[in-house]
Amino acid sequence: MATESGDNKLKLYSYWRSSCAFRVRIALNLKGIKYEYKAVDLLKGEHSHPDFLKLNPVGFVPVLVDGDFVISDSLAIIMYLDDKFTQCPLLPPDLHKRTINFQVTHIVSSSIQPLQNMSVLNYIGEKVSPDEKLPWAQRVIRTGFTAIEKLLKGHTGRYATGDEIFLADLFLAPQLYNATRYNVDMVMFCTLLHLFPLFGQDWYGGIEVSELYYSVIILPLLFHSFRFWWSGFWMSEISPYLVSPHISLLGSRLILVTYKPFATC
Ligand SMILES: N[C@@H](CCC(=O)N[C@@H](CS)C(=O)NCC(=O)O)C(=O)O
């Protein structure tokens, strides 16, 4: 398997939370391509540093450097990697499937992500109000996801357009991560949630077994040991009941807070 480009390992300029860089990291990892990770901290403004602007004058991550060839857009980078490293092709041979992949990709990369980019949200926060940042991000994500839901209906398999991972998946997974960051209510987006159940756990009744176990078994156990200890210590039968409602309440709250039925799908 081709892993490196000549003697020069590929260099990826990335920020861990950047959904655009996340797309490229998925492509690199799927294809088993080794690369050097160059962290660019967006929160510290490192993307505006003159050295970084030499690589990408727009001041965005990701940037991929292959020898002396510099590419500064996630889709361009991914297409470059797909042509150069042919293992795990990212575009399906079927014309319709391929076109659906392009549509999803462009909805995410043109109609969602740029509108909720850090600089846009900061601008809204400054010029309009900090309170408007979150509703705006949620709104653009919801609009885009509504379109993608429609588009994918009848085409999905284990992944967005069948049983193999293609371009659309590389753009969708990071955008779903963004949706979790912006606390978008996902109950309407059944197809997306079925494709990426991990992102849906908190949204559609995905009670984590460990949480249930914690609330149903561990807390009562703790409570009863505490009761024994308490009554032994204080030689009193009344005192444990003073704390019991508190602890049971904590137990049931854990269930109620995390449980949300997958009603609409
Ligand atoms: N079309 C570009 C967009 C790149 C982009 O917007 N990157 C974001 C992170 S996901 C960024 O660097 N934001 C910095 C900012 O908004 O100032 C791509 O797909 O690579």
Explain this structure.
The structure is a single chain. This protein is α+β, with helices and mostly antiparallel strands. The chain has three domains: 10-84, Glutaredoxin (3-Layer(aba) Sandwich); 95-198, Up-down Bundle (Glutathione S-transferase Yfyf (Class Pi), Chain A, domain 2); 209-258. Helices cover 56% and strands 6% of the residues. A four-stranded mixed sheet has the order 2-1-3-4. Helix 1 (19-30) crosses helix 7 and helix 4 (95-112) packs antiparallel against helix 6. Bound molecules: glutathione.
Describe this structure in a few short sentences:
The chain is α+β, with helices and mostly antiparallel strands and about 260 residues long.
How do the strands and helices of this protein lay out in sequence?
Elements: E1 10-14, H1 19-30, E2 35-39, H2 50-55, E3 63-66, E4 69-71, H3 74-84, H4 95-112, H5 118-127, H6 133-152, H7 167-181, H8 190-195, H9 197-200, H10 209-234, H11 239-258
Parallel strand pairs: 1-2
Antiparallel strand pairs: 1-3, 3-4
Bound ligands, each once:
glutathione
Largest sheet geometry: 4 strands, mixed
CATH architecture of the largest domain: Up-down Bundle
Strand content: 5-15%
- CATH topology call of the largest domain: Glutathione S-transferase Yfyf (Class Pi), Chain A, domain 2
Helix content class: 55-70%
The domain count comes to 3
CATH class of the largest domain: Mainly Alpha
Shape label: globular
Number of strands: 4
- Largest beta sheet: strand ordering: 2-1-3-4
Structural class computed from helices and strand pairing = alpha+beta
Q: Give the low-confidence spans.
A: 1-6, 201-213, 233-265
Tell me the series of helices and strands, N- to C-terminal. EHEHEEHHHHHHHHH
